[in-house]
Specification:
Order of helices and strands: EEHEHEHEHEEHEHEHEHHEHEHEHHE
Number of helices: 13
Structural class: alpha/beta
Largest sheet: 7 strands, mixed
CATH architecture of the largest domain: 3-Layer(aba) Sandwich
Strand content: 15-25%
Distance between the termini: 69 Å
CATH superfamily of the largest domain: Response regulator
Helix content: 40-55%
Oligomer: single chain
CATH class of the largest domain: Alpha Beta
Length: 329
């Protein structure tokens, strides 16, 4: 005798045509929550931070079967973010996580009702995303990165590593909404240290080579690179260009140092993404973004590559090494 399908896989139509799922499937479907993530970079670049975010959710009691995450990425093309944000909004997730200032800007333009949790935003008040840190108002809350202060630290660290540096270049993407605030922090630090700042811009990948040509022509002695998603996507190329120009450089992301960059300094992004899970949890439980204060970073990391320092003929001061969270030999 031929057996029918296992009972747990059988679908039953009740009177009126309603589809009845097996009890376990109905229970799983009922508790699965849909959230979304919008990134300006690539899936591979975001992967470790999304995993930290998932770890944060697991620590709060959400299994992987409890949460469905819709992910969209602009792959460094900021102009795509508006369409991607609109696409996510049409899916009607319960909350959307924005992984950068351009992503949050696009999301805020796309919806005023779906809660948005921001991560890695330098000055959310100045950018107009929230009213105040304590009382965000609207539908945006999350974590700020204090990037203006951090950007100043990049200049201080370069000056400490290269005491005779009188001219330092700074590379950023003016298309990033956070650009003016990062630049302001760099400029303030340069003025206080009496360093001439050479401001360089790159909106698209093919402008990066030209920026390094300018660095050489203007005889800059060191380089600071912002944390713009475009630069993270082009990290191998940027590190190679810095090496070929014999240019000491500091970066926002530790990934640059892992592949040969000299130094990086910034808020611990894994920690920020883990903490973003708390905002998602509170939102899923009914809290309003307007009532959830925006938090600041509590963990920072300094990474130094001594192999690169030796290749550049630099001796990293003991004060920097003593404060490093990681030293790559």
């Amino acid at each position: 005798m031929t057996r029918g399908p296992p009972p747990t896989r059988r679908l039953v139509l009740a009177a009126g045509g309603t589809l009845l799922l097996p009890r376990a499937a109905r229970a799983q479907s009922a508790k699965r929550r849909r959230i979304a993530f919008l990134g300006a970079g690539s899936p591979s670049a975001a992967a470790p931070y999304l995993e930290a975010f998932r770890q944060g959710l697991r620590a709060l009691g959400y299994g992987d079967e409890d949460i469905a995450i819709e992910e969209r990425y602009a792959d460094g093309r900021v102009e795509r973010l508006r369409d991607l944000a609109a696409e996510l909004v049409r899916l009607a997730p319960e909350v959307i996580v924005g992984g950068s200032p351009p992503a949050v800007k696009a999301l805020k333009q796309a919806t005023s009702t779906i809660p948005i949790v921001m991560v890695t935003v330098p000055d959310p008040v100045g950018l107009g995303f929230i009213a105040t840190l304590a009382h965000p108002g609207g539908n945006v809350t999350g974590l700020s990165t204090q990037s203006e202060d951090l950007a100043g630290k990049w200049i201080e660290l370069l000056k400490a590593a290269i005491p005779d540096a009188g001219r330092i270049a700074f590379l950023d993407n003016p298309g990033n909404p956070g650009y003016p605030f990062i630049l302001q922090g760099v400029q303030q630090a340069a003025r206080s240290l009496r360093i001439e700042l050479l401001s360089l811009q790159a909106r698209v990948p093919n402008e990066i080579d030209g920026a390094f040509v300018t660095v050489t022509r203007e005889h800059a002695q060191a380089l600071a690179v912002s944390g713009d998603p475009l630069f993270l996507l082009e990290k191998s190329r940027i590190v190679e260009l810095a090496a070929s120009h014999k240019l000491p450089a500091i970066y926002r992301w530790r990934e640059f140092v892992a592949i040969g960059g000299l130094m990086s300094y910034g808020a611990d992004l894994n920690d920020l993404f883990r903490r973003a899970a708390t905002y998602v949890d509170k939102t899923l439980k009914g809290a309003k973004p307007a009532d959830l204060p925006v938090e600041q970073p509590t963990k920072f990391e300094l990474v130094v590559n001594l192999k690169t320092a030796r290749a550049l003929g630099l001796t990293i001061p003991p004060t920097i090494l003593a404060g490093a969270d990681e030293i790559i030999e």
